[in-house]
Write a structure and sequence with these properties.
This protein is an alpha/beta fold. It is built from 9 helices and 15 strands.
Length: about 325
């Protein structure tokens, strides 16, 4: 990367997560700047840039990728567009932070990783939760054996989504569905907590008329007779929680996914004694942006490499197959 005072971000598209979460978060990094935002409509890009005080607006994604001042690109596009535009971005020598899931298929993820490696740029999947201090504390507590070796995880992520709205989440051709949108958090965090890969899944889904899963629930089995019981849904008012159970006690993460800027509280039970742990406040979108910037400047790989996305997607695909066939599926 060229020597500059600030690390310049470009944002591909005016998605809600970009406008409401990533851009405000990235702006908190004193060493970086959100320099530009692109849309297929120049008018929309200009309006968003003016609203968020972003210096440059582009009327196409290609125009932004052609800007030599952009160092890295955030990709919040619909799932089915992740592969195409990530590859175009890395070919333009831009580092990429791509929203989860990195792509709807394993083949696409592998193509994205290969392209990033070939062009010698950093590619990172935007699972923002895992860089928040509360999860850093959880992973460390598990590593230190505070609750013993985890045996069971109960994980939920749901919210009510109005299916009448036009949105890629309701379109099976665009990588829609609750599993890929929010169920992926339960899969990814379980892999982190167990420090292992799933071996078998059993799941059931309730589908929309268009064929996307509105609700999916099931069991993810891990080596050593360990399991995660999970649910994801667009049909239920927000229930977000993770409880990690071990032989000595449990850790309850009461606001695991979107704690905002508050200091999240975790409940810790060890040998019958309950305590409350308060984690530091942090903007997790800023955390992930800062981490990618640090990786680029120091020439190191992300804490969670892009290849991690393959392992998560293998489990998600097995869950999809189990829900459709009604049978348990090996991962």
């Amino acid at each position: 990367m060229k020597s500059k005072k600030k690390f310049n971000w470009g944002v591909l598209g005016c998605a809600r997560i970009a406008v409401n979460a990533f851009i405000p978060g990235a702006k908190k990094d004193k060493n970086a700047k959100v320099l530009g935002i692109a849309s297929r409509s120049l008018k929309r890009a200009e309006a968003t840039a003016q609203e968020l005080r972003i210096p440059r607006a582009y009327g196409s994604y290609d125009d932004m990728l052609a800007d030599p001042d952009i160092d890295a690109v955030y990709v919040p596009l619909p799932n089915h567009m992740h592969c195409e535009w990530t590859i175009k971005a890395v070919k333009a020598k831009k580092h990429v932070l791509c929203e989860k899931p990195m792509a709807p298929t394993i083949a696409e993820i592998k193509r994205m990783i290969a392209a990033a490696k070939k062009n010698k740029v950093v590619l990172m999947e935007a699972f923002m939760y895992r860089l928040h201090p509360q999860w850093m504390w959880v992973f460390d507590a598990i590593k230190k054996g505070k609750i013993g070796k985890p045996r069971v995880i109960i994980s939920d992520f749901s919210f009510f989504f109005d299916g009448s709205k036009t949105d890629y989440r309701m379109d099976p051709e665009k990588g829609g569905g609750s599993l890929l949108d929010v169920g992926c958090y339960s899969v990814n965090s379980s892999r982190m907590c167990f420090g292992a890969e799933p071996v078998r899944v059993t799941a059931r889904s309730h589908y929309s008329k268009k064929g996307i899963d509105l609700t999916t629930a099931g069991i993810i089995e891990f080596p050593g007779d360990r399991s995660t019981i999970f649910s994801s849904s667009f049909e239920s008012e927000g229930k977000w929680s993770v409880t990690i159970q071990g032989p000595k006690g449990y850790i309850s993460v009461t606001d695991p996914w979107l704690p905002g800027n508050k200091k999240p509280k975790l409940e810790l039970m060890v040998n019958g004694k309950k305590s409350v742990v308060q984690a530091p406040a942090a903007n997790q979108y800023c955390q992930e942006a800062m981490h990618l910037t640090e990786c680029v400047r120091k020439g190191k790989q992300p804490k969670y490499p892009a290849s991690d996305a393959i392992a998560t997607m293998k489990a998600l695909k097995a869950i999809e197959k189990s829900a459709k066939t009604g049978k348990s599926v090996k991962v």
